[in-house]
Each structure stands twice: as C-alpha cells, then as structure tokens.
# Entry
Amino acid sequence: MDFVKFGWQGITMEVPSTWELSALSGDYDNGYIRMDDENSPRMELKWSKSREKKPDLQKILDEYFKGMRKRLGENADGLKIKRNIELIKNEDFFKDREVVFYNWKTNVRANGAIWFCKECKRIVVIQIMGYIKESILSDTIRILESVRDHPEGQTNLWSAYQLSVEVPRRYQLDKRKLMSGYLSFSFIDGSRTLTVERIGLADVILRDISLQSWFRSYYSRQLRGYGFSFEEINSKENDDYRIKMSGQAKRFIDRIPFSPLFVIDKILRRKLISAYFWHCKESNRIFVVMAIAKKGVDELVSQVASSINCHSIVQADMLKG
# Structure
C-alpha cells in the first residue's frame, strides 16, 4: 500500500493514498478529522488543548466509550473494549508523551491511542478502523509511528484533496473552502493575510482569455486600490506558465510631484500585495498564492508557492509501504 504525508493544524502523519478527508472541524486548540476510503471510515483524529499538567487519559477514554455506547443504542452490548494493550514498541514514539493504547470491536474494529504531548500541551486521540476480518495492525503501527503532534520546523503542512502546502507557523488558518473544483485556504498573522487557492477546469476558464487577464478580472476586488505589475517567471523546474504580480497601495500623495508627506509615507509604510499564479496543464488547474502585508510579501508568496507540487503530489510524496 502507498502512503502520503498529510498535515492539518500542526499535526502531520502518513496515511494511505486512497484515503481522503470526509469530516473536518475545529482549530489548533480543539479539532476533529475523519478520513474515509471509497467504502467506509478509516481514521478518526481528535485533539484538544489541556489545561491540566497531567490529564487523566483513562477518564477521557471513559467519556469517549460512554458516548460510543450511547450512539450504538441497542447494539451497545456487542461493544468489546480492551485498554492498555501494546501497539508501539519504538521508544521514540513515547518521547514527551503519556500514552494509552486501546482497541474495540462491534460490527467493525479499531486500534487506537490517546496521549498527552508535554510540549504542545494537546491531548490527541487517533483510531484506525477496519472490517472485522481485516488485518489493520500493520497500517495502525505505520500511521501511529508517523504522527507528529506539533511542527518541528518553521512551517505547518496543510493538506486536502491532493493539495499540500507549507505555510509559516505564525500564520493561522482563518477561513477555508474545500470543494471538488475549488480549494481555498485563508491565513492571517495580525494584519497580514495569505491566501492559497486551487481552481479546477482551467482549460474551460482560459478558453477565451489569457491567464493574466483572468487574474485581473477574478481578483478585481482584491486588487482595487493597488498599483501593480506582472512578471513572467521562467523556471527549469517547472514547465507551467507562471506569473508573479507585485504592487503597493495607492495614496493621494502619489499624484503630488513633491511633498513633505513623502516622509510620513515612508514612516507609516503602505501595504504591499504580491501573488504567484500559474496554470498547471497536467492537472488542468489554476494555482494562486497571494499575500498582503507591509513587508516581505514577495518572499512569502515565492516560498509558499515553491512548496506546492501542483500535478504530481501523490507521486512526489509517495511513501512505499
């Protein structure tokens, strides 16, 4: 089985390439993710910020299984639970973690773990599910050993529907839209903003219009009030047609040939806008990375855009089982 790297809210792991997001909620402090294959749920992940220095993991499991019995209703009698089992032997897994492993069975089965990370102060609950007669132990071990509950570098990995992008950790997810033909991540860091978008059916969109003209029209509202210019980017690493846009906010003193207000203008710093966008012909998608801030926007969009593998994300990040 082939695996790919998945990331969300500072948590990363390796998951089978056939699994996709089916449920998503929350933020960095509290959240939930479910991933399904084409037939059924396969993985559930929950995390929550703990206010306690040493949370009672067994008590949390008590509440979890109490909720499961309630959901099962009349079938709750068939629920069989085992706690404090052995799943992972690798000592590195337990570094800075208090861990309890468990499994349960009904008409399906699951192997799971709950732990408290002493560094990020989050409680993580993850379980891998399968059919009764299906062996899920090897996948469970592979996935659990790959989980990192906080980033080790200066960026966070964000993944959804074969799009993965690395974003500086100081940027927090503000809004998201996850649809089959359109993905959008909006991040904020104070007054600074960063947006990553993937738009499908590029051949239809660009049938009678150039990429640059489309960009001007599609982002006309965001570009209003800015002066900007475009630059074609030629890269040996990419065959796609790529364009970089750079600009700055307009002010009324721009029309004055000379004014002492220029000094104030330099002190206050006007907002800058930058975007890096391209048409990936192989995936038939348009990718856009846009940032607005008072400094560093060109470097930011170039850094973020370079982390996106637009048409071979699965092949490039594939981890053979």
Residues 57-72 form the longest helix (16 residues). The chain is about 20% helix and 45% strand.
